[in-house]
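Annex B. Sample input.
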Amino acid sequence: MICASRTGEVIGAKWPEIDRKAKVWTIPPERMKAGKEHRVPLTERALTLLDEAEKVKTSDYVFPGQQKGKPLSNMAMATLLNDRMKKPDITVHGFRSSFRDWAGETTSFPREVTEAALAHSIGDAVERAYRRGDALEKRRKLMDAWARYINSPKAKDGVVTRFRKVMDSDSDGRG
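Annex B, continued. Sample output.
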């Protein structure tokens, strides 16, 4: 939720992809929908969550599954929302959609920056050929604002708080 990333990108995350010094998570092309490497700026809150996850590290996967050498199941988050939180109307993809709506409706960040944060292809083939940068520092500001928002009082009455409570009550911190 905090990185506005797709489920497959998150559950496949491995520790070597995380660069704490640069505050960047680099997702390799083979895990990206568009088949292109994607750099995700990591907020202070994301780094804190990674620090907590690393305390119970059992694998190269940031979110290891029950089977040795395998990541968490792609159904883990849906199960958390449906079974533990009793919120069958909320989807994991809905977190990405919420991020997009929040950015477009309540911030002045350019559309291109928001779409880049979601790893969406922007423009036609010609525009993409000329767009070589990934606006990492602009996306970092956007993600910092998103992290502040989802941890703000405005978000405390919603799913974010209930999600936090469920995660905090989980003894091993993995949901």
